[in-house]
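Box 3.1. Reading complex inputs
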Amino acid sequence: MPRIAYFGPTGTFTEMALARFEELGIFDEPVERVSATNPPAALQLLRDGEVTGAVVPIESSVEGSVPPTMDALALGPRLQILAEIELDVAFTVVARPGTTLGQVRTVGAYPVAGAQVRQWLAEHLPAAEVVASSSNAGAAEDVASGKVDAGVSTALAGRRLGLDALADGVADFAGARTRFVLVGRPAPVPERTGCDRTSVILQLPNEPGSLVRAMTEFATRGIDLTRIESRPTRREYGTYFFHLDCVGHVDDALVAEALKALHRFAHVRFLGSWAAVSEHGVPPVSDDDDEKWLQQLRRGEEQS
Amino acid sequence: MPRIAYFGPTGTFTEMALARFEELGIFDEPVERVSATNPPAALQLLRDGEVTGAVVPIESSVEGSVPPTMDALALGPRLQILAEIELDVAFTVVARPGTTLGQVRTVGAYPVAGAQVRQWLAEHLPAAEVVASSSNAGAAEDVASGKVDAGVSTALAGRRLGLDALADGVADFAGARTRFVLVGRPAPVPERTGCDRTSVILQLPNEPGSLVRAMTEFATRGIDLTRIESRPTRREYGTYFFHLDCVGHVDDALVAEALKALHRFAHVRFLGSWAAVSEHGVPPVSDDDDEKWLQQLRRGEEQS
Amino acid sequence: MPRIAYFGPTGTFTEMALARFEELGIFDEPVERVSATNPPAALQLLRDGEVTGAVVPIESSVEGSVPPTMDALALGPRLQILAEIELDVAFTVVARPGTTLGQVRTVGAYPVAGAQVRQWLAEHLPAAEVVASSSNAGAAEDVASGKVDAGVSTALAGRRLGLDALADGVADFAGARTRFVLVGRPAPVPERTGCDRTSVILQLPNEPGSLVRAMTEFATRGIDLTRIESRPTRREYGTYFFHLDCVGHVDDALVAEALKALHRFAHVRFLGSWAAVSEHGVPPVSDDDDEKWLQQLRRGEEQS
Amino acid sequence: MPRIAYFGPTGTFTEMALARFEELGIFDEPVERVSATNPPAALQLLRDGEVTGAVVPIESSVEGSVPPTMDALALGPRLQILAEIELDVAFTVVARPGTTLGQVRTVGAYPVAGAQVRQWLAEHLPAAEVVASSSNAGAAEDVASGKVDAGVSTALAGRRLGLDALADGVADFAGARTRFVLVGRPAPVPERTGCDRTSVILQLPNEPGSLVRAMTEFATRGIDLTRIESRPTRREYGTYFFHLDCVGHVDDALVAEALKALHRFAHVRFLGSWAAVSEHGVPPVSDDDDEKWLQQLRRGEEQS
């Protein structure tokens, strides 16, 4: 039975993402879920060989990239993203049975979640003090243990702990979504589906224009960049890793060309090519006609 | 007496940054310090006219950009950065007098700080549970109130609350620094010093290559970009604000050219030009000789 | 009375171009026409102070740029283009009075002209031998002197020498046109008209990509390049002068920017800005709004 | 016996170039030389199937590209360049036996040659009239027939016609060289030698920046462009063919990439890849390591 780590405890959105991967049949057999206290810890279990995969959040439509996930992917032995899933993120405010909104004096919230429900709290619980919890599920645990009166959590976490929902679908920003990825150790890249995403982490030579040059390798080949983030290397102030996502698959000829071009002047950590959960840009054009034309040139058959 | 907001409570690194600005004589007269619970709240006090300036953290050498500060600068009426300061960031682990390391079962830490001392905690307090605090100074308050046994905090906060220091200079990454900025409402740009930083937030047309185009406006003029960050707009999934910092001042001719070039195809929010605290790249070349040459051309005096 | 050199003898298309400049009132007073045996000779008279202006052909719609003109502009003291004119170029085949097509055994033709009437000759004078003349007007002189039976010339030259026209409007390529320029010594640039052309000759550093860089200085500013030619420097094999024409005037802010940008890394010989005879591309956008926006930024007045 | 056309008559530099190709063993067997009156005529014989190859001049270090050759390569069925040779170009001034410099009143010269010996003529034959001849060898024929007193020609042409050399090695520009190419009908491209040249003619979409884009396809791949020329299409005023030469061979991976990239947005006429007669730039880098790295990525073997 494969063991898959996730950012837990039980009841987090990340566990829901793992459940979704299971439903989609990504794994051939039932899996054993292994909780980790944060995304880097989940990836460390994978590097240590304790698990065969890890599910972590990578990007939120409200909060942007998830720094601990990105930093943990950049450092240590290379890992590879195998699949992705997106979840609507709306919170459930939970409390012990019988508690009413009017009785709530303290609210536990994972800081990332607290930032996404600030307006709701200001409107519905203006007098309550917000206390930091260690995760969304942890907020429910803080309620169950009596540490806080209410918690910004998930429906699943509340149910498991026998809590009531004071409010459902709580989110300041309608349509908030978070993307989660399934990460494994390096392996043959999944097959091209035609709707794929490729991700790399670059270390660029310390020269003016080297980032523009890297991005130009995609732009001149008509490849859509969908995300670019700089993250400090933590080694030297002012030096960065650059995380780039593009539309397409390493088996798309032009994406392959772009990666090889980057490899000529930068250190490229390849994070994988995998099926994108939705259309997210214009797919790269095919190289087939161009290649056929070139072969005709070489053989002296091209006439025009 | 000018009122200046800062990310508090008293004893945070941000308050130390404000103190440093005072020492440097940035303000002509003594200031009244106004604590705010987080960086966006400090900037909101400024927009509301409650204060005349705000000090907030903007970038850490370990954790990268500070998302709440960046997002609060991007939304709402335009604000302007007037000055910057950098502080070495090393933490003090505080406890109630008489407490020894061996007695510590729970440690309060602001999550950003917790991430920077993870190795230290694993080594020196391997069995302690880490509990989230609301700021670095808040961790000391949590110790004083008995909520936790020890706190990852600042020396200043510990002293003010009469706590003992269990350890000083605690940091997993040697040389960690954080940059803080003084923000005001739009005003005439401070004079060029020759060692300046300019910052903008861009909203780009939704076209392939528009980010490369924006960056090329700097690259072709030999202007060093020192930071680039994308942040979700929170309006539509997959749309971003781009935060760009470059070396130079709006009064450097080439920087002025680049800003005008951006303005032709993008929405540009100018965050200001101000004296950089240290050399951080190659300053833009002067335009003086080129302008003189051009004037000679126009008058028919250029001979070669 | 100003003396103006032209590529003669009398009766050439270049003399017609000079006549057109006179009709258009370019000169304030009547001019004395001074014939020169080729375009470089006309420009040499100007450099020697023998004349105050020179009219030379610069580009043909059939034959492309006129190399002797371009090379003579590139070498020696700088000269400046002040105005341009375009003429339809169709030839008149002239002969001594009484001659019929059937009697023509030899045809004089300036080689450039011969290339433009090759098909006509093959059809109407298939048996005639083509003999090189020194100019279009020279072909008529060769007829008058009895050296050849017929000449590919101009109507004007034939009339002046009392020759008959065997055929008029002779041209293999319908709509052939040639552009002529009036050249002077360096002087204040003529005023911007809104429909202008600017021309430079570049000597680029011997580095890969320097020509692309030069062209990018125009492209990123949305300035249309209308002509690019490389010409050997004649000093070292494989080294070139690059002749570039663009739409716009040195008083267009973006053209001025581009010229200054070129000046930072290349040797730029400015050949002038002058009124274009016809629309020949998209004029550069105005910089006025951008400059106004920038000034508001500097004063702290820009709100968005 | 293969028939090879050349720009004649006998005694031209082009015939010397053909002789050099024969000496080098380019042809497996003796060839029959077929004279053509100009470069386009030589290429037309090839297109008509009258000959199997043609030798034409393509570039002079003094006069630049040879327009009739370039235009004839651009129009009509595609032809392919198979080989190149360079010749030092210095002229021999010939006269009938017994003639002295002092007796020369008229000098025959092919206009291209006349332009390269202008200073010599001004110094040594200041009073002589220059008369246009149809080729360098034609100038010797004009001397032999008594049409002119002396001719700017080649040593070979003078010898064949029994003329004397008044002067040898005549050239205003020391080290003048001309490059000649052997052209055939489309055939499999000659093998890569590591010191090759590739040539294309582009028709670009009528959009601002399309030429820069084309050149960037070479620049971003580190491929040296060695020549760029625009030539009017003769169809519409202001429309051009662009002739580009680069260092490298279609079997160099990066050159192949660049050609395919051009093919995606432009009409590309491939003129061939062939061994360059001398080092003329930096050869393109190899793609082997990058391709190996990419294959390792795909198989999950890349570790860093």
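In summary: Residues 203 and 277 of chain C are 28 Å apart (CA to CA).
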